Amino acid sequence: MENFNLTKLRDNLRDYIPKDLPKLPSWPAGHTSMNPDDEDGPPALASGTQSDLPLDTIATPEPPRQMVLAEPKPIQPGPKTNLDLMNECDNFPYYQTDTKLFFAHINTYYALYVADYPDTELGYILPSVAQVFRGLPDWKIDESERSLTLITGNTEVERSKAVAMTTQALRATGHFKILRGWRDELYPVYGPKGELLFSIERAASALFGVVTYGCHMTAYTRPKRPADTEEEEVGGEEEMRIWIPRRAATKQTYSGMLDNTVAGGIATGENPFESLVRESAEEASLPPSLVRAHAKSVGTVTYFHIRDHRAGGETRLLQPECQYVYDLELPEEVVPKPSDGEVAGFELMGVEGVKEALRNGEFKPNCALVLLDFFVRHGILTAGEEGFVEIVTRLHRRFEFPTV
């Protein structure tokens, strides 16, 4: 991004950090969290309690609008149906199917805005996160509207600088565990007409609940079987096989789980296909020339995820995501290989083996959805399967926020 450098901002960080940075509300005596994923927190309560930090410990001008949230279901190890996989990743409630729960969520969060676009919600923020912005430069909290607004900046560069100063300050305080995974990568946040409003550090994006973008590719082969007779020079095609990587045990997020052949985030100023070419070389050692010539764009997969402990950092953060999806049929002699240390290794798996790993819950949640989309498009998952229409529909969720 032109005229914007995160590294230079660190030199001025000390002057920016407020001396009286608000602390997260302390737990009252006897209170326990209902979040079963919070390993550092107390045990779960029975259903019918607030999922986030208790708002009654925070001084506000007027009582916030609250609705009761149902207790979250713990993550089951398996076996999982395709609908289970769908629900585990796309787990923000739908208005159409559970209106009460939908409004319970909507009325609990704070909506994110920038001052120049007062009618455009950009993300949802947990109350415990929003309260930390009280008194910080560049931000305004409105309790009656339950909103957090970036009030500084009339250009993308100015807004991005303000956001960077804030996230750098929060990182310096050690306030949020999620910021320990700082990446020095910028993610874009778009306005209602696709204009770039600001960029934000990748590790901080879930704190703000903004839409993030990535590219996922499934690489597969269709090997030839040996000829059955002397007259048959080449045998017919065997069952499709898919290249499946296992994430390195050192990964901060979803360590050791199975993944798509290539997957990565799309940075500010990067188009999806160029991101795919870069990630293919970095993660799978696939030559750029091969990817450019043969990778096929096959659409998008969108979902609205509420993070659990496997994602690293605080749980319950909101993460709406759009993944640009690609297929790549590889010749048998091309073997993906780890390159950047984020992948432990690749395995060429048959379709039944992939299905079994999905049932066992071995895949990273969003990667499971990309594979379900792959199965639909290749006629592996068909109309005879349970929940087929719901799965196909929810693989392309429409967001309440602007997208490009």
In the CATH scheme, what's the topology name of the domain at 212-394? Nucleoside Triphosphate Pyrophosphohydrolase
Distance between the termini: 18 Å
Strand content: 15-25%
* CATH hierarchy, class of the domain at 212-394: Alpha Beta
Q: Order of SSEs, N→C?
A: HHHHEEHEEHEEHEEEHHEEEHHH
Unreliable residue stretches: 1-13, 18-65, 67-71
Describe this structure in words.
By secondary structure, the protein is α+β, with helices and mostly antiparallel strands. Helices cover 25% and strands 20% of the residues. It has helices at residues 6-9, 13-16, 82-89, 99-106, 127-130, 156-173, 205-208, 272-284, 288-294, 351-359, 365-377, 388-394, and strands at residues 110-114, 123-125, 139-142, 147-150, 186-190, 196-201, 212-221, 241-247, 262-265, 296-306, 318-329, 343-350. Helix 3 crosses helix 11. Among the domains are: 109-206, no CATH class; 212-394, Nucleoside Triphosphate Pyrophosphohydrolase (Alpha-Beta Complex).
Topology (SSEs and partners):
Blueprint: H1 6-9, H2 13-16, H3 82-89, H4 99-106, E1 110-114, E2 123-125, H5 127-130, E3 139-142, E4 147-150, H6 156-173, E5 186-190, E6 196-201, H7 205-208, E7 212-221, E8 241-247, E9 262-265, H8 272-284, H9 288-294, E10 296-306, E11 318-329, E12 343-350, H10 351-359, H11 365-377, H12 388-394
Parallel strand pairs: 1-4, 7-11
Antiparallel strand pairs: 1-2, 3-4, 5-6, 7-8, 7-9, 8-12, 10-11
In short:
The chain is of the alpha+beta class. It is built from 12 helices and 12 strands.
